[in-house]
Amino acid sequence: MTNPKLVLDVQGLNVDIKTPKGMLHAVRNVSFQVHRGETLCLVGESGCGKSMTSLAIMGLLPKAAQRTTQTLSLLGEDLNQVSSKRLNDLRGNKMAMVFQEPMTALNPAYTIGEQLIEHYCHHKKAPAEQARKRAIELLDKVGIASAAQRLGQYPHQLSGGLRQRIMIAIALMCEPELLIADEPSTALDVTIQAQILRLLANLQKELGLAMVLITHDLGVVARIADRVGVMYAGQVVESGSAEQIFSAPRHPYTTGLMSCIPIPGRTPAGGKLGTIAGVVPSLIGELKGCAFRDRCEHVQPACERPIPSYGVPEEHSWRCIHQEGVGL
């Protein structure tokens, strides 16, 4: 029986890219679910496969990339079986994405109004005047003053924070069920970052969206996430509720990430934050054993063999054989 609250179901997702040096395994056997009204945060260092995962879901991978999955469904519809026309109908309509850099995502040759209106008319087959009213409504909702006047402006006439709000408005124009936000606050200053994240959290609650938020900032995760997937070397190495991940992390990589952020009341003023020595390994060719072992202080010979998943997949699970002593 189909779960009516389940919006996105991803099981066994792999993304492989042919390169001159061999096959690059950008995403390796990634699985997760997102329900209506839930925020899943995918977190990890740059190059861990977070953005590639989102592009695979949206069907926006580069031509050299190949996606394979056991299950990839949106609202019960198998995205592996849909035609390109049907995928275009779903993309922007039932699932939408807020990209990392709005200046490159917005078309500089068209006004804000033209881009909002075209998006709505294409998917809803609505007249331009109805689309214009919807655009003004959404600009108001995302906190942009003088919304009607903004429709005539071009992207270069707006600040980074306003452009990101425009991107959020475009994503929400057709009332999607799933919103994917890929590092939506990275290029913004700290004050604007907080405003954008607060906006996303409020909209998610108000509209009951299923949201996948991609970030490398655990401070962001602590404020907004219901569930967390920690990614390393293209693989989810730990997943669980935000409370479980922050109160009882079981993978050394998760612990290392947490040591890199200041904790009020626990991190002394002027004290040094933690670091994770080394770099993410190359994802070209076959990866054997735990990909984190060259950077892990708990490494042991068994780490060179395949690492099973421990815990309960739907609750709190991790890929690490070092069961004791991993935590803050």
CATH architecture of the domain at 6-85 and 213-318: 3-Layer(aba) Sandwich
Series of H and E elements? EEEHEEEHEHHHHHEHEHEEHHEE
Largest sheet: 8 strands, mixed
How much of the polypeptide forms β-strand, as a percent range?
15-25%
The N- and C-terminal alpha carbons lie at a distance of 40 Å
CATH class of the domain at 6-85 and 213-318: Alpha Beta
* Percent in helix: 25-40%
On the 0 to 100 scale, the average pLDDT is: 89
Strand segment count? 13
Cα-based radius of gyration, to the nearest Å: 21 Å
> What is the CATH H-level superfamily of the domain at 6-85 and 213-318?
P-loop containing nucleotide triphosphate hydrolases
How do the strands line up in the largest sheet? 7-8-9-3-10-11-13-12
Count of DSSP H/I helices: 11
Word description of this protein:
By secondary structure, the protein is an alpha/beta fold. The chain has a domain at 6-85 and 213-318: P-loop containing nucleotide triphosphate hydrolases (Rossmann fold, 3-Layer(aba) Sandwich), CATH 3.40.50. Helices cover 31% and strands 23% of the residues. The protein has eleven helices and 13 strands. The strands form two sheets. It has an eight-stranded mixed sheet with strand order 7-8-9-3-10-11-13-12, sandwiched between helices. Strands 1, 2, 4, 5 and 6 form a five-stranded antiparallel sheet that branches. Helix 4 packs across helix 5 (128-141) and helix 5 packs across helix 7. The longest helix has 18 residues, at 190-207. It is globular and about 65 Å long. The two termini are 40 Å apart.
Summarize the structure.
This protein is of the alpha/beta class.
